[in-house]
Specification:
The chain is an alpha+beta fold and 348 residues long. It has 11 helices and 15 strands. Helix content is 32%, strand content 29%. The strands form 2 sheets. Strands 6, 7, 8, 9, 10, 11, 12, 13, 14 and 15 form a 10-stranded mixed sheet that branches. Strands 2-3-1-4-5 form a 5-stranded antiparallel sheet, with helices on one face. A hairpin with a 2-residue loop joins strand 2 and strand 3. The longest helix has 22 residues. The two termini are 37 Å apart. Bound molecules: S-adenosylmethionine. It comes from Cellulomonas phragmiteti.
């Protein structure tokens, strides 16, 4: 039975790095449950082990090439090795979904940016809950981040070759992200088209929108094999008037933490708590999910306990995934923020 060792990626954030091995271990077990038929858990699951003074996650499992393609996308996987009986580590070539330079994920730095690895974890688990393995590895998943800030989720979705749609009420965030995306596409000389306009529904302007249509190669662009990256400045509570019902496979958001300058704003949500905002927004987002699609949220449990958020998801008609690996993803961000992750499926 082959043994594998995962070298965990250090994060720019020391607090996250300290928790990364546990988080990526539970991410692996959750992906195993959803996409690998439990083959990793059947062998006892991953265990943390220090080799040469460096921490690894070690697992026993008979994994196919496609299984390894899933594992390759783990949020904090830096390198994957086969661990030989004599202790030697043999590098395994990883075939990640990533199709662009990784500076797409790292260039933008700003206060309030959601940790990139946590964003990838949340997107991985939510997409895995919404799609079969072939779909996860080989389709153009349609992703909405309805509170997208400066686009950490959108960048990760584009990186995977998926279609990314974002809504945020904060004009400065939307303008900064739109400017970044346009510049990045130009700097990388990627073939793309840009269109900008207002979103008007029944005589009301809901917001301003920029749509980029892009492809990794000229040939794909010419053949119409293109990705969409679209960002709308507007209130998330209007998202069901911006997009048609059932349009998205996956909805993923890092909710406001409810600290610092109130953080929740919007024409229809003046100074609301995260609890009130989520109570109103979740039914809107659920309507945008196709049947069998999934919603993934990260949020601050210091302002909203997990059981309360889970109850909101159930009330909105979703099935939260509440088994062990999904319950092991809470982590400390700082004194005021304990962040957790929840994934819930819209019944098929
Ligand atoms: C924790 S931040 C998300 C950060 C984002 N993931 C990033 O890395 O840039 C929460 C976001 O929710 C947005 N927000 C709060 N209320 C909103 C509303 N009513 N409609 C749309 N966005 C809202 C805030 O502007 C903020 O950008």
């Amino acid at each position: 039975m082959p043994q594998y060792a995962i070298l965990v990626q250090p994060s720019a954030n020391r607090v996250y790095t300290q928790q990364a091995a546990r988080l990526v271990g539970n991410e692996l077990l959750a992906l195993d449950r959803l996409l690998l038929d439990g083959r990793v858990a059947a062998r006892g699951g991953p265990a943390e082990r220090t080799m040469g003074g460096v921490p690894y996650l070690v697992l026993d499992a008979d994994l196919t090439a496609d299984d390894l393609r899933v594992v390759a996308n783990l949020s904090s996987l830096f390198a994957l090795f086969e661990l030989r009986d004599d202790g030697a580590l043999l590098p395994v070539d990883t075939d990640r979904l990533d199709r662009y330079d990784d500076d797409l994920l790292t260039i933008l730095k700003y206060v309030g940016k959601t940790n990139e690895q946590l964003t990838r974890l949340l997107l991985n688990l939510t997409a895995a809950a919404a799609l079969p393995r072939d779909g996860f590895l080989g389709s153009r998943v349609r992703v909405l981040d309805p509170m997208c800030g400066r686009g950490t989720t959108l960048n990760q979705a584009v990186m995977y070759g998926w279609d990314a749609y974002g809504v945020d009420v904060d004009r400065r965030d939307v303008e900064a992200y739109t400017a970044f995306a346009g510049r990045w596409l130009q700097d990388k000389r990627l073939k793309h088209r840009t269109s900008t306009g207002r979103v008007r529904v029944a005589g009301t302007t809901l917001g301003r929108r920029t749509t980029f249509t892009l492809a990794a190669t000229k040939e794909e662009f010419r053949a119409g094999d293109v990705q969409t990256l679209e960002i709308t400045q507007g209130d998330t509570l209007d998202a069901d008037r911006m997009y048609r019902a059932g349009f998205f496979d996956v909805v993923v958001a890092d909710a406001p933490y409810g600290i610092q300058h109130g953080s929740v704003t919007g024409p229809r949500t003046p100074s609301r708590s995260p609890r009130d905002l989520l109570a109103d927004a979740i039914p809107v987002w659920v309507g945008l999910l196709r049947r069998g699609g999934a919603l993934g949220l990260s949020w601050n449990t210091k302002v909203l306990p997990r059981q309360d958020l889970v109850a909101m998801l159930v009330d909105a008609g979703l099935d939260p995934l509440e088994d062990a690996p999904f319950l092991g993803l809470a982590h400390r961000v700082d004194q005021a923020i304990e962040r957790d992750v929840v994934v819930a499926r819209r019944p098929g």
